[in-house]
Amino acid sequence: MPEKLIEAPTAEEIAAGVETEFSYTTVLKRTAVRRMYFSCDRRSIRALCQYLKDAFNFEHITSLCGVDWTDRLQVVYHLSNYCTGMVIEITVDIPNDDPRIDSVALIWEGANWHERETYELFGIVFEGHPKLERLLTPQNYEFFPFRKSYKLRGQE
After folding, report:
1. Domain limits, the chain
2. Among the four residues 24, 93, 142, 148, which has the most C-beta atoms within 10 Å?
3. What pLDDT is attached to residue 127?
């Protein structure tokens, strides 16, 4: 838990804080005006998100989605700080043979539906999610339609 909340942090303050707390698991890839891009190890995502919310006032998860890169899956998070207009993008790579990552739905309730949708479409399991189940497809549906390995009817 951080000592105090920095309500309107600068990119430099955020970069320094993340480097101090998560130097072995998180990498700052680049920055732009009011944008920061990180990559993170999947074992640290929940702790990193909690830290960004508690220390730097990232009070909103704007989006969370999955990506299938064929050789791996990826979860992409967009976090917002309303005081500064700063948005942080965090990408987390996940192996195809173990599509699991910690849920952030208890940090931001808005992540609940994003995680459920990503689970339904990509098969990524968000561990610790309060109600991880399909939204539109039947509960017994065994396929994940946004995976590149999913074959449409009529394809061979």
Report:
1. 11-127
2. 93
3. 97
Whether residue 80 contacts residue 60, with contact meaning beta carbons closer than 8 Å, is answered with yes
Q: Which CATH class is domain 11-127?
A: alpha beta
Q: Which residue has the higher pLDDT, 135 or 71?
A: 71
What does residue 105 show for φ and ψ, rounded to 5 degrees? -65, -25
CB-based contact 60:107 (threshold 8 Å):
no
d(CA 45, CA 51): 10
Which long-range CB contacts under 8 A does 77-84 form with residues at least 24 apart? 77/45, 77/49, 77/104, 79/49, 79/52, 79/53, 81/8, 81/9, 81/56, 81/57, 83/7, 83/8, 83/57, 84/8, 84/9, 84/34
Is 122:144 a contact under the CB 8 Å cutoff? yes
What is the average pLDDT value for the chain, to the nearest integer? Answer: 92
Q: Give the single-character DSSP code of 42.
A: G
How many C-alpha atoms does 74 have within 13 Å on its Cβ side? 15
Query: Under 8 Å CB-to-CB from 139, ≥6 apart: which residues?
Result: 133
